[in-house]
Amino acid sequence: MPKVALYNTAGEQVGEIELNDAVFAAKVNEGAMHQAVLAYLANQRLGTAKTKTRMEVRGGGRKPWRQKGTGRARHGSIRSPIWRGGGITFGPTGQQNFKQVMPRKIKRLALKSALTVKVNDGSLIILDELTMDLPKTKEMVGVLGNLKTGRKVLIVTEATQENVVKSARNIPGVKTTNANQLNVYDILNTDNLVITRDAVTRVEEVFA
After folding, report:
1. Low-confidence residues of the chain, pLDDT below 70?
2. Helix (H), strand (E) at residue 73
3. Rounded to an integer, what distance in angstroms lies between the CA atom of residue 152 and that of residue 161?
């Protein structure tokens, strides 16, 4: 089992914690992680983009000029897609569905792989606890400074803590989540993954 240092919010090492091999020392599957990231990004798309067809463009009720005798090409409506300001051919309809569903086993494999990558890179920071009595951005900045984190940080707690969320939400590059909502994209898109000991226990219970 891999051993990782355990820190307090002052940035002091207070011990070590053994991590479950099945979750934090799994075989890294890059294909699964790639698929999970693509699915996550696809599922963020709303599919609300829309263009007008020639039936929806305003105007063009009459033929722009007579069929023959002008020396110009034949046209029946200025709403034709070949006209400037005309309708769009095969444009987005506003009803696209970009949702991708991944098999449960692949999702679990991808998440374990992402957590293992963080352990191998030495970018996993485990806190003994993270609690705040009041929402204080300055206090959260101090905690991250004590831990010497990078610019982009993901903070994971066992359950959603409103004061922690409010303290971190105005800090650029810092994102918070709970153990039940972890996803591969957020894990990989960070310099450091800061996770509490209770959240580690919760993750191991679900994915081991």
Report:
1. none
2. none
3. 20
E-only strand ranges, the chain: 3-7, 13-18, 124-127, 153-157, 174-178, 192-196
Are the CB atoms for 164 and 157 separated by under 8 Å?
A: yes
Q: Are 143 and 70 contained in the same domain?
A: no
Which stretches within 26-178 are classed as H helix? 30-43, 104-121, 137-147, 162-168
**Number of domains present in the structure of the chain:** 2
Residue 208: what pLDDT? 76
What is the model's pLDDT at position 207? 85
Q: What is the pLDDT of residue 34?
A: 97
78 with 23: CB under 8 angstroms? Answer: no
Look at residues 19, 91, 22 and name the one whose alpha carbon lies nearest to residue 54: 91
201 and 138 inside one domain: yes
The answer on 201 and 165 residing in a single domain is yes
pLDDT value at residue 169:
94
Structural domain for 93, as ranges: 47-97
